[in-house]
Amino acid sequence: MEPSSESRPESRPESRPESRPESRPESRPESRPESRPMKRSLDEDEESLSKRKASDHSSEVADHYNRLQEVGLQVRSQSRIFYMRNFNNWVKSVLIGEILDQLRRSRTSPVRVLDLGCGKGGDLLKWRRGNISHLVCTDIAEVSVDQCRSRFEEMKKKSHNNDMFTAEFITADATKEPLWPRLADSTLTFDLCSCQFVVHYSFESRTKAEMMLKNACERLRPGGYFIGTTPDAYELMRRASLSQDLSFGNEVFKVRFKSRSPPSLFGAEYHFSLEGVVDVPEFMVYFPLMTRMLEKLGMRLILKSRFSEFFEEKVKDEQHRSLLQKMSALERLRKELYKCFYVTSVTFAFQGTLSRSEWEAASEYKTFRTEPGLDKD
Ligand SMILES: C[S@@+](CC[C@H](N)C(=O)[O-])C[C@H]1O[C@@H](n2cnc3c(N)ncnc32)[C@H](O)[C@@H]1O
């Protein structure tokens, strides 16, 4: 059913998202994962605990994404999370676009990108618009990689002015094997690794997370970046702590924890389902830990921002605002909804919103970005 103004008003935000208590994890420090004693952080006993706990979910994740059907715009536009998916896509576009601009400003050589956990190629257009020279797409799900390749071939056929980059496609579990031997040129280096909505699958165990981060960063050239998006562990914990039965969500998404015991650094599992798109186990990413792990790889995590914060910051830019509209990343406010609050400020030239349910799902996420990597030699 087309989401209509009649069927959706009650699910609209009652206040601007940034003023909602649930988007402010700072308000409940007792529920934060960092309240764990830090000395436990990388202890061996923690590692063996997570090993004992972890059964390997990689194939379950791969099977899930392999089974996911690609649907066209017509079907997507009828989904209850149509605007949220567009909004998430806008966040990725801005994140990727800004980094590519920076790369182009700082160097004259062609830009090479690793799309780690590329899925069905949802970011291919962003790479084309960003004028990159070479792309490596890799994912654990074979069907997704095949669809990504077909999408690329299709784009290439349609591109008349030869503005297409070259690309290669690899099916591999990035938490279990180094990707380099699988590249056409095993000495290839990258200017950017983009890991969108993926890194949380690797925090099932320390070994897996280490391999994923190594694959992300090891082949970055000096000045290269690692960027991504992932659920915010603080927010997940905060919401779970408010719930009676360790689960929370609404009609579009659900998060379910198994136990109330303090989460381990690796293997802190919860089950995540999102209307027809995701239904898999995921693992909390504790940012201070990822920061330490990245430091060991010579990278410094400098930006972590909630989607709400990211939005507030980026929407100030005229170009980003106009992209927001082009991508239908917010639902247009109709007259009958004028009493509702909306996501954007009235000082900007347009108004738009996400339903409350969509916002509750989107506001779980964070973007992250490293400082340009140093020469590792
Ligand atoms: C939510 S989708 C995101 C896809 C894409 N990055 C995007 O933003 O549209 C998560 C992707 O991570 C991939 N993935 C999960 N675990 C992985 C692993 N161990 N190695 C490589 N890819 C993995 C899944 O197959 C899936 O395609």
UniProtKB/TrEMBL annotation:
Stored Gene3D superfamilies: Vaccinia Virus protein VP39
Binding annotation for S-adenosyl-L-methionine: K92, G117, D139, D173, Q196, Y201
The protein's name in its UniProt record: mRNA cap guanine-N(7) methyltransferase
Residues of the site described as mRNA cap binding: K120, K126, R151, H200, E282, Y365
Catalytic class of the enzyme: transferase
Record's keyword annotation contains ATP-binding: no
Keywords, comma-separated and alphabetical: Methyltransferase, mRNA capping, mRNA processing, Nucleus, RNA-binding, S-adenosyl-L-methionine, Transferase
Region called Disordered, residue ranges: 1-63
Catalytic activity: a 5'-end (5'-triphosphoguanosine)-ribonucleoside in mRNA + S-adenosyl-L-methionine = a 5'-end (N(7)-methyl 5'-triphosphoguanosine)-ribonucleoside in mRNA + S-adenosyl-L-homocysteine
Domain MRNA cap 0 methyltransferase as annotated: residue spans: 79-373
Organism field: Periophthalmus magnuspinnatus
Record's subcellular location: Nucleus
Protein family: Belongs to the class I-like SAM-binding methyltransferase superfamily. mRNA cap 0 methyltransferase family.
EC number assigned by the record: 2.1.1.56
GO-annotated cellular components: nucleus
Pfam families, sorted: mRNA_G-N7_MeTrfase (PF03291)
Function: Catalytic subunit of the mRNA-capping methyltransferase RNMT:RAMAC complex that methylates the N7 position of the added guanosine to the 5'-cap structure of mRNAs. Binds RNA containing 5'-terminal GpppC.
GO molecular function, one term: mRNA 5'-cap (guanine-N7-)-methyltransferase activity
Positions contributing to mRNA binding: N88, N89
